[in-house]
Amino acid sequence: MNIAAPPVLIFDSGVGGLSVLGPIRALMPGVSIVYAADNAGFPYGIRSEAEIAARVPALLGRLVERYRPQLAVIACNTASTIALAHVRAALDVPVVGTVPAIKPAAEGSRSRVIGVLGTMATVRQAYVDRLAGEFAVDCTVLRHGSARLVILAEAKLAGETVTAADVAPELVGLTGQPGGERMDMMVLACTHFPLLAAELVEARTLSGLGPLGMVDGGAGIARRVAHLLGGAGAGAGQPGSGRAVFTRADAHVDALAGALQSFGLMTTEIL
Ligand code: DGL
Predict the structure, then answer these.
(1) CB 226 within 8 A of CB 218
(2) pTM for the whole structure
(3) Residue of the CA atom closest to atom 2 of ligand 1
(4) DSSP of 140-171
(5) DSSP assignment of 79-133
(6) Mean pLDDT of the chain
(7) Going from the N-terminus, what domains does the chain have, and what CATH number goes with each?
(8) Residue 171 burial by CB count (10 A; 0-12/13-18/19+): exposed, middle or buried?
(9) How many angstroms is it from 146 CA to the middle of ligand 1?
(10) Using a 6 Å CB cutoff, which residues line ligand 1?
């Protein structure tokens, strides 16, 4: 008898966690995935710390009870930087969080000016100060919080056209700051933003400011998950199953069906 391993739960406010699901699937094709999006609470980036800290652990508790995952990934910088400790305290499964990739950005910067592009809630966190102090102490670390890019990423995956011109003002949010024209590495500190990597690269090219390296946490999270699951939990042979779970039924969820299926999430349900 073939008893399937329990799934890995991947959690975000919306489709951003798909930028983490991609590297997890690439590294562990056999693992079963439950992808949970709190669209009823979306967007997190404009919420207060207190709201996130109350909402996320309670919701993850319900999801773990329902789906019994072997491991949970908070594929959301906003939720992780605010609520990771609360979630770990509340759950009895291992929890992997998402940390702004300041360390690799600092390692790759020659100009010693790096940018952190996240949600408004993420870029104001003391957690980001600590990462900058630990890993980028000799760098100028510019920050910009963008709610618009989150909306644009959702729109793109729902089939709408998003262009470089749409995302360009958010790059200017960093390059327009003192020293910003020298920025040569940028942290995509919101999991929605790698979904707009092509548009961001094009916008940078059009700006004429020269090459810009972009880093996000997806590959590192996938390695961490693989390490925690070991050989046994990661699944092998057959491609793992995938389903998406939302916290509210609406037309946007319907519009996302094609994108979800392209990430192997073949069915959608409401929590
Ligand atoms: N994807 C999320 C993050 O990484 C948050 C997007 C939002 O809901 O504002 O921060």
Answers:
(1) no
(2) 0.96
(3) 76
(4) EEEEEE-SHHHHHHHHHHTT----HHHHHHHH
(5) HHHHHHHHHHHH-SS-EE-----HHHHHHH-SSSEEEEEE-HHHHT-HHHHHHHH
(6) 95
(7) 8-98+218-270 (3.40.50.1860), 102-215 (3.40.50.1860)
(8) buried
(9) 10
(10) 12-14, 16, 42-45, 76-78, 119, 122, 150, 190-192
Q: Tokens for 200?
A: 């961001």
- Is 139 noted as a catalytic residue in this protein? no
Q: What letter would DSSP give residue 45?
A: G
Per residue in 27-47, pLDDT tens? 999 999 999 999 999 999 999
Strand-pair category, 95-96 with 71-74: parallel
Say which residue the tokens 């699937």 belong to: 25
Instruction: Tell me the residue length of the chain.
Output: 271
- 190 catalytic residue (yes or no): yes
Q: How close is the Cα of 46 to the center of ligand 1, in Å?
A: 9
